[in-house]
Amino acid sequence: MPDMETIVSLCKRRGFVFQGSEIYGGIGGFWDYGPLGVELKNNIKRAWWKAMVQDRGDIVGVDAAVIMNPNVWRASGHVDTFSDPLVECKNCHHRFRADQIKGEACPNCGNKGTLTEPRQFNMLFKTHVGPVEEDAAITYLRPETAQGIFVNFDNVQQSMRRKIPFGIAQIGRSFRNEIVTGNFIFRDREFEQMEMEFFCKPGTEDEWHARWRDERLAWWKTTLNISDAHIRVKVIRREGTTIIGPDPEDVQAEKPPHYSKGNYDIEYKFPMGWSEIEGIASRTDYDLTAHQKLSGKSLEYFDDETKEKYIPYVVEPAMGVDRAVLVALFESYQEEKVRDEKRVVLKLPKQLAPIKVAVLPLARNRPEIVAKAQEIAATLRPHMMTVYDDSASIGRLYRRQDEIGTLYCVTVDHQSVLADDEKYDGKVTIRDRDSMEQVRVPIVQVKDWLVGKLAE
Ligand code: ATP
User: Fold this and answer.
1) What is the CA(372)–ligand 1 centre distance, in A?
2) Which residues fall within 8 angstroms of residue 310, CB to CB, at 6 or more apart?
3) Rounded CA separation 295/142 (Å)
4) Residues 226-248: pLDDT tens digits?
5) Predicted pLDDT at 441
6) How far, in Å, is the centroid of ligand 1 from the Cα of 275?
């Protein structure tokens, strides 16, 4: 597996991820996705939405506002308890999360005995709504998308005539004023989440919790093509923390969050160690009950068949899109030796690759070749993400496309277009990213050939 530096540098050099506000020196915990990063991210989101909403009959989507009535965050417990323990070094004034420090020394300056006692630091970002800046107008940027689903439970259930069990899915930005950010896009202050709240009958939650653990683990493995050695499940219960999967001894004990009866955290083996990429929480009726109490609106569900009335229990798979982007990059990055030269290739799964095909003219000083290559690129664009590039020699162009994970390169040469060339065949060369095998395909068939390959 590559180290973090390698991935960060590839991301900047090739247009996946840039430091936020870079020309002003950046701003900690905020990142900007470049042209390739946004494609990769959109492909991951599309794959999740398809698996969670489109392919199933029992889940529907919403897109709630980022800013909500501040009572939402009082009811959910975030105003009072969404905090991490903060310590500050009296010598160098660096700040740390107390639970991430080992020993007494300051991790920055190394001085001993200079760290303050921990105090709770609330991670909600505050803002004001409307043209006044008084305390009454204070609200928060959402730290999770889940609450936008809970407050719409009744709206969705009624308008869509849903019967329990059913789920509501959402993709959107979340904001947390993390004490320490780091490890590139792993821990940000602004990030994107994909969360789904699955509403079920009390008493069936353990079964659904186990089912969602298995579904989500399978989704990560197949969608991001993750090898078994790099992914595992951390089982967090009040009684203790255990691991299903590799390195069971390498585990930090944890307690489930205040709203949860138990968690399955899916973890990936990053260079900095096993870290959470998705949490599957058994949230009981905690949130709906809290909202019912503070809002005064009934959030009970009436079961037509059994004539029972109850507040549904909730199982929530919640993942971060940015962490998934990072996993996709680590898992697909490979360095190979090809004819004594290093080849860097991102072996991204087909549906995730930002660019599906690059069309390259072999000789950029031959107008007929250039024109034909541009024409082929134009016919491919409506069907797949396509780029045209004539800015370097063919060897360099292949290397560039390999490094960003482009699935196929179509090369237009003399034989393809020059009718007076003795080897003229009206075909182009299509090169496969992974096998590097090349085949000649008639120009008129290129689109269908590629569409067929992408659908395989
Ligand atoms: P961590 O323990 O790493 O702080 P968490 O347990 O607070 O994460 P959850 O509240 O369960 O995270 O959020 C669900 C998912 O959202 C996480 O699994 C992660 O993928 C993503 N996520 C949470 N916080 C961040 C962050 N600061 N930056 C990027 N992604 C995040």
Assistant:
1) 48
2) 201, 202, 300, 301, 303
3) 18
4) 999 999 999 999 999 999 999 99
5) 98
6) 10
Of all protein residues, whose CA lies closest to atom 26 belonging to ligand 1? Answer: 187
Ligand 1 lined by 179 (C-beta under 6 Å): no
For 236, half-sphere exposure in the C-beta direction (CA atoms, 13 angstrom radius) is 23
In sequence order, the β-bridge partners of residue 243 are 234
Q: How far is CA 7 from CA 17, 184, 330, 407, in A?
A: 10, 9, 7, 19
CA of 320 from ligand 1 middle (Å) equals: 6
Contact 394, 411 (CB under 8 A): yes
> Does the CB atom of residue 29 touch ligand 1 within 6 A?
no
Place of tokens 């269908």: 448
Q: pLDDT class for 76, splitting at 50, 70, 90?
A: very high
Map the chain to HEC letters. Answer: CCCHHHHHHHHHHCCCEEECCHHHCCCCCCEEECHHHHHHHHHHHHHHHHHHHHCCCCEEECCCCCECCHHHHHHCCHHHHCEEEEEEECCCCCEEEHHHCCCCECCCCCCECCECCCEEEECCEEEECCCCCCHHHEEEECCCCHHHHHCCHHHHHHHCCCCCCEEEEEEEEEECCCCCCECHHHECCEEEEEEEEEEECCCCHHHHHHHHHHHHHHHHHHHCCCCHHHEEEEEEECCEEEEECCCCCCCCCCCCCCCCCCEEEEEEEECCEEEEEEEEEEEECHHHHHHHHHHCCCCCEEECCCCEEECCEEEEEEEEHHHHHHHHHHHHEEEEEECCEEEEEECCCCCCCCCCEEEEECCCCCHHHHHHHHHHHHHHCCCCCEEECCCCCHHHHHHHHHHHCCCEEEEECHHHHCCCCCCCCCEEEEEECCCCCEEEEEHHHHHHHHHHHHHC
Ligand 1 center–CA 186 separation, angstroms: 9
Residue pair 396/409 in contact by the 8 Å Cβ criterion: no
386 CA from centroid of ligand 1 (Å): 34
Please provide the size of the chain in residues: 456
Q: Summarize pLDDT for 92-129 with one digit per residue, the tens.
A: 999 999 988 888 899 999 999 999 999 999 999 999 99
The CA distance from 173 to 145, in Å, is 7
Q: Is 276 in the pocket of ligand 1 (CB under 6 A)?
A: yes
CB 277 within 8 A of CB 201: no
Task: For the full predicted model, state whether its pTM sits above 0.90.
Answer: yes
Distance CA 64, CA 52 (A): 17
Report the C-alpha gap between 168 and 160 in whole angstroms.
11
